[in-house]
Specification:
Layout: H1 10-15, H2 17-20, H3 26-35, E1 37-41, H4 47-57, E2 61-65, H5 90-101, E3 106-110, H6 119-122, E4 127-130, H7 135-148, E5 152-158, E6 161-167, H8 176-179, H9 192-195, H10 199-218, E7 227-232, E8 237-242
Parallel strand pairs: 1-2, 1-4, 2-3, 4-5
Antiparallel strand pairs: 5-6, 6-7, 7-8
Length: about 260
């Protein structure tokens, strides 16, 4: 958590009035959001809605990691960016959009690839949020989350569907490698560009990542720890499956506390 504060300002009480009246939230929950920090990897289809809704909800600090430039094909689903952003770094347009949404938001930018060596970059953040689009980055995210003992909120989308979960062995749940024991070799599986994605699907799953993060921070509700929610938005079908921890997992079967 960031430096604690004892109360909300008058402006904050007005701004977040629709949240603080919610059961399980209150001013205490809003203060927890204000004191919390989240590191988001990817400012694309998932990262855009996740970052925007966390910023709007009152999160204290957002770390953003991405090294791509905005392309015209991104605009169908990546709402952090605009036509004027095409050809510029995603982090630039992301920071401008989020600052316009909330001027008091602390934004830290990391224009670099995310790897298993990014531990010190993430150290000090409360939650790691996976908005990536490939197995290698997700594996790196898992390694860093395990090393630091923080939750990893993760989602994946393709075509008209997706899934969301929270990996947190330190809270009794599985890690990413419990669910995906073998990481596929790059080039052996289709990419999002090949499969396609409906923008509203990415928006839905990114918002769900934001909600899982909010639940973890505030204590409201029950996060998807040890469970994964699959959504088929073309049919409206939602399926919740149990994700057990694998006692023989190559990543988390030993003590992974930082």
């Amino acid at each position: 958590m960031m430096h604690p504060t004892s109360r909300l300002t008058d402006d904050e009480q007005t701004r977040y009035a629709r949240q603080t009246i919610l059961p399980g939230m209150g001013e205490e929950g809003q203060l927890r959001l204000k004191q919390a920090s989240v590191f988001i990897v990817g400012c694309g289809g998932l990262g855009s809605p996740a970052a925007m809704y966390l910023a709007a909800a009152g999160i204290g600090r957002l770390g953003l990691c991405d090294f791509d430039n905005v392309e015209a094909s991104n605009l169908q689903r990546q709402l952090l960016h605009s036509e004027q952003s095409v050809g510029t770094p995603k982090l630039e347009s992301a920071a401008a959009r989020l600052s316009g949404l909330r001027s008091d938001l602390d934004i830290v930018l990391h224009e670099q690839p995310f790897t298993a060596d990014s531990i010190e970059t993430v150290r000090g953040y409360d939650i790691l949020l996976d908005a990536s689009d490939n197995y290698e980055t997700r594996d790196a995210l898992n390694r860093v989350a395990l090393a630091l003992g923080i939750p990893l909120v993760s989602a994946a989308v393709s075509q008209y569907g997706g899934q969301v979960t929270v990996y947190a062995p330190h809270l009794g749940g599985p890690c990413y490698r419990c669910a995906v024991p073998e990481i596929p070799v790059p080039g052996t599986y289709p990419t999002p560009a090949q499969l396609g994605i409906m923008g509203a699907v990415a928006g839905t799953l990114g918002c769900m990542e934001a909600m899982e993060t909010i639940k973890l921070i505030t204590g409201a509700g029950q996060p998807l720890i040890g469970a994964m929610l699959h959504l088929d938005l073309l049919t409206g079908k939602a399926t919740r499956i149990t994700l057990p921890r694998d006692p023989s997992c190559p990543a988390c079967h030993t003590d992974t506390s930082a």
